[in-house]
Design a protein that fits this description.
By secondary structure, this protein is of the alpha/beta class. Helix content is 28%, strand content 24%. Helix 4 packs parallel to helix 5 (134-142).
């Protein structure tokens, strides 16, 4: 993909965004762990801290006093640490707060991304700021991303935002490589038993249809090493698998009565619109903690129908219904099960 990306990214083979729509889920820690693990596998790796208002890279690498130099090509030279190439607005800002409006923020992001001399890299990991705002749009419109990794916790509010993140990236044609579930559980020191902090929960793969790259336990400090190595392996597989599963993905059509899945082998699945709407697994329709339905069938109109259906990679569709509901993600596995 390097030939499609300009300026300092021309020799970067893959650019992966690490994102979460909710703060406090450990996204930056996961991004750093992922970069370190990829580097430990012998790959050339860079890490961009794209959070202008709350840069965390200087703290995570203990580089609050790092200097950024400009080379003869008027490009910023990344700070090198632990075999990684690093860039963060925090290196330029120091301890001062970043008080600026959206257009200025977008300009700084483009400078950090495009006017940094990254050199030859196998992977550039972008630690995205939380949310779905200007910075995310600036990055997705400025370069072509290999894909995105969504970081979440089992907490209900975080899972609600996972759907928002998936839908955001898919709308701008950025494939979802998978989900990392952070703080998924903790292991008791005295009994070595695995405890799920937020209680029993529905499988994220069943819920969203996306690949699960890893489940990270609640750990002291930043001791993620052995867990992040397997996440990095899963990420490499997910990138290599892109496009390989498309033959099994159906064409989806709909009308006022039904949704139709048409497969290349001639199979066709016809589903009643109301049946699909009642099967929605989103946090509005299902209690995330218990898995029990909270959607009242009596409140779903008889003439319910899609207004728009958006394919989400090779794994699901997003449906915007005529009752205003649009947060549901319907994995193909769920739709096939309904048949």
């Amino acid at each position: 993909m390097s030939s499609t990306n300009p300026f300092g990214l021309s020799k970067v083979k893959n650019v992966v965004a690490v994102s979460s729509c909710k703060g406090g889920v450990g996204k930056s820690t996961i991004a750093v762990g992922l970069a370190r693990s990829l580097s430990a596998k012998g790959l050339k790796v860079g890490l961009l801290d794209a959070d202008i208002h709350g840069p965390s890279l200087p703290t995570l690498f203990n580089l609050s006093s790092a200097d950024v130099f400009i080379n003869e090509f008027k490009m910023a030279v990344p700070v090198e640490a632990e075999g990684l190439k690093l860039m963060s607005f925090g290196f330029l800002l120091g301890d001062a707060p970043a008080v600026m409006r959206g257009p200025i923020v977008a300009s700084y992001i483009q400078q950090l991304l495009l006017q940094t001399d990254w050199g030859v890299l196998d992977y550039l990991i972008i630690d995205m700021p939380p949310g779905t705002g200007d910075i995310q749009l600036t990055i997705t419109q400025s370069i072509r991303l290999t894909g995105a990794v969504i970081v979440t916790t089992p907490q209900t509010l975080s899972l609600v935002d996972v759907a928002r993140g998936i839908l955001m990236f898919e709308k701008v044609k950025v494939p979802i490589l998978g989900v990392v579930e952070n703080m998924a559980y903790f292991v008791c020191d005295s009994c070595s038993k695995k405890h799920e902090i937020f209680g029993a929960r529905q499988s994220l793969q069943k819920r969203f249809g996306t690949k699960i790259l890893g489940e990270i336990p609640l750990l002291p400090g930043l001791s993620l090493g052995k867990y992040m190595s397997s996440v990095a392996d899963a990420l490499l597989v997910a990138i290599d698998d892109q496009g390989k599963e498309k033959d099994g993905v159906p064409q989806v059509s709909f009308d006022e009565k039904s949704i139709v899945l048409s497969y290349k082998d001639g199979r066709k699945i016809v589903l009643d619109n109301r049946q699909v709407r009642l099967a929605c697994q989103c946090a509005v329709c299902v209690n995330e903690m218990t898995g029990q339905k909270v959607l009242n069938p009596a409140k779903v109109r008889l003439d319910i129908a899609p207004k728009e259906i958006t394919p989400l990679g090779n794994y699901a569709v997003g449906i915007n219904w005529n009752d205003g509901h649009s947060s549901g993600i319907f994995p193909y596995s769920l739709l096939e099960h309904l048949s």
